[in-house]
Amino acid sequence: MKSEMKKAKTKKHKEYLSIMLIPHSQDRVRVIKISSFYLKVSLLLVTLLIFISGLIVLNIKLSGQKKSLESNIEDISRLNIEQKNMINDKANAIKSLEEREKAINAKINQFTEKYKDMAEKYLSDGSGSKTSRSGDRTERTFVDDISILKNSLDELIDESSHQNEDISGLSKIDEKLKKYISTIPTLWPASGRVSSKFGEREDPFNFSERFHAGIDIAADYGSDINAAAEGTVITAGTLPGYGKAVIVSHGHGLRTLYGHISSAVAKEGQKVKKGQLIARVGSTGRSTGPHLHFEVRINDTPVDPLKYLDKK
């Protein structure tokens, strides 16, 4: 009986944990007894609290990483859309360039054919050699055709320059056309109204019908007279009936005459540009007042200047 009580007492002592508090002073020693059950429960609760806190911290960290990943995914998605749009833009640009290149090539072919037709129609005979200025060249349609051809070439060169195309061949043709157009008398030599046209008219001196080999342009005395086309001055002096006059040769049998001038500015043998000042308006020779008598001659045959001059 005593043995059993001793075992129970020993077991009871083992259920407590004693903590002794020994002060430095002379106060009595304090003993704190903690039940082992409560201690275990407390340790378990502390461990659980630490575990839960760890889970919360981990969850917060994972949540941050998730948001970061979602943000990265959005950035990548946006970047992919931008790259896709950029690729589409580049594809459209390439397609546009290809279409422009086809259009330019088509225009080049058109121009080449038109230029060949013009060359065959106006610039060469059956053997391929250049002809003199005659036949259809006396018509304004020739000048209009040349102008249309030149305008087409200007548009083509301008469009090609934006595409960095090799247009050296076109540039040579352009120079030829510019040179040729510059020798066609399309520029009005003086400012004023046409007071007398080409052809049969009543002579102002004897009132009989007489052929008028040019046109008369009423203008103020001393006003400018400009070359209707590029050429070389072959006469700068006095001519019967015309008084003081200037004659310019434009090549291929084409000449222009400027009569009744007050004075010549250009000299014989001088090369003049289209629009260059060559004389002053006067009333010399067989004239009734200040005006310019202007003639266009092909192989010394007068033709109507209005078929050449630009339309006002």
TrEMBL record:
SUPFAM superfamilies in alphabetical order: Duplicated hybrid motif
A Pfam match: Peptidase_M23
GO molecular function annotation: metalloendopeptidase activity
Residues covered by the M23ase beta-sheet core domain: 210-305
Keyword Nucleotide-binding listed: no
Membrane-traversing stretches: 37-58
Superkingdom of this protein's organism: Bacteria
Coiled coil: 80-114
Keywords, in A-Z order: Coiled coil, Membrane, Signal, Transmembrane, Transmembrane helix
Key word Membrane present: yes
InterPro entries per record: Cell_wall_metabolism_enzyme (IPR050570), Dup_hybrid_motif (IPR011055), M23ase_b-sheet_dom (IPR016047)
CDD domains named among the record's database cross-references: M23_peptidase
PANTHER family membership: L-ALA--D-GLU ENDOPEPTIDASE, PEPTIDASE-RELATED
Record protein name field: Peptidase M23
Species assigned in the record: Pseudobacteroides cellulosolvens ATCC 35603 = DSM 2933
Biological classification of the source: Bacteria, Bacillati, Bacillota, Clostridia, Eubacteriales
